From TrEMBL:
UniProt protein name: Betaine-aldehyde dehydrogenase
UniProt entry keywords in alphabetical sequence: Oxidoreductase
Source species taxonomy: Bacteria, Pseudomonadati, Pseudomonadota, Gammaproteobacteria, Pseudomonadales
UniProt xrefs under Pfam families: Aldedh (PF00171)
GO molecular function: aldehyde dehydrogenase [NAD(P)+] activity
Native species: Pseudomonas cremoricolorata
Similarity-based family: Belongs to the aldehyde dehydrogenase family.
Oxidoreductase found in the keyword field: yes
Amino acid sequence: MTQHLNHFIAGKSVEGSGARIELIDPVTEQVYASSARGTAADVERAVAAAHAQLEGGAWSQLDGAQRGRLLTKLADLVERDSEQLADMDANAIGRSPMEPRRMDLPNAIANLRAAAGWANQLEGRTIPTGGYFGSKTLSYTVREPVGVVGAIVPWNSPLMITVWKLAALLAAGCTVVIKPSEETPQSALHLAALAQEAGFPDGVINVVTGYGAEVGKALCEHPQVAKISFTGSPEAGREIQRTAGVLFKQVALELGGKSPQIVFDDASFEDAVRGCALGLFANQGQVCAAGSRILVQRNLAERFGAALAEAAQAVQVGDPREDGVQMGPVAKKTQFERVNRYIQLGIDQGATLAAGGVSTPERGWFVRPTIFTNARNDMAIAQEEIFGPVGTLIVFDTEAEAIALANDSAYGLAATVWTGNLVRAHRVAAAIKAGAVGINCWSPLDANLPWGGVKTSGIGREGGFSGALAYTEEKVITVLLPS
Ligand code: NAD
């Protein structure tokens, strides 16, 4: 029996047009569920429900403290169901369930709890001015919710990324239509049901499942959607700018990356190898912040390349539901083909294959953890996002060269600096063009920290207080004071 998933609109499970999308298990390549294939009509119903809650609905009557209490209840319920939610996300993409249990779910719960606090802290300012034609004035600002948000989410960390958007926008008083990835709709649907159990009014949180070109596009074009918050590929982000941007909607884009990990010869060797391996192989390398470009100082390069190749060979690949397996397949067939294509390109362009290689499994979209050494920064494997467990090592001589190589990328999401010299660490961190830099740690995520990129990695920040502010408009009010 396959699972039958519907939309969640105005507090109800909604079948939609009847067209379905099959969900395929990446380990067995068997269909395990189907979801509703949403249409513009489904989006219309969901946006209407979300809009009604802002226009005099019960949600619009709540103050920040009351919204905060609901967020706290939702956090408790997500915590109650955290293993179930982690397993849903893991099974959908063939990931080891231990990863979302240890990383995504605690982070999502912390985000909900942090946002519960932000909800009551979205204060305005009192601003001194020069007055108005000789009379004194009082000017102040208030933070108002942006409106209905279209939240468009990818498949790699579905629940966590949905919560990054949801927690912040609810704190700000917005309502939402979530469009999960067509591959991973379950956890968003479960989250919406939990929000209903927590007591959020019907229509505040809606989920319309389906394809980007149908549901996503309809959200971007809908006149009552005020903001699109998108996480995904630069290609889709560009398309969203073209549709939502020209309609003057706010558009926040969390896009891809080709993040450098710079390893200086004074770094702790073991820590750097462990950190680089984590940055390459967590979630099969299907992480936006994957540290996929390893820049290594020349006198360390050979030993470091050999150690990373050994780490790649030691990864246990197989059915992630089995004990001891560390890495499952990549999430889908197109992803499998993409990763293998890049591995072949690396070989063709002359990089040295130190571990892994092109994979041809009998069943399941398994790819081998792969390490290239002796690569150049202008190769495709160094410039383009592969989104798989593939690391590319490039040698540098000087600090200035390392910084130049790190910044010689269309992307600017994250970076790591591995060094024992903290003065150098801060100098290099300041010089790197990226949204986040880790010093001796790969991609530290925390509910209190903003997250986002520069250049092709996107526009805007999620997370932390900045994330909640991003779902508000600052309105200024000026009153003429009688003299
Ligand atoms: P994708 O762009 O194919 O899809 C993402 C979402 O957008 C899906 O829900 C999809 O249906 C929808 N979509 C696609 N085309 C659309 C369109 N024209 N209009 C509206 N919606 C559309 O990306 P993906 O393959 O799901 O995810 C992988 C990408 O996401 C990688 O590039 C990765 O780096 C990026 N990512 C970024 C972050 C971050 O925080 N910066 C986090 C995770 C993933």
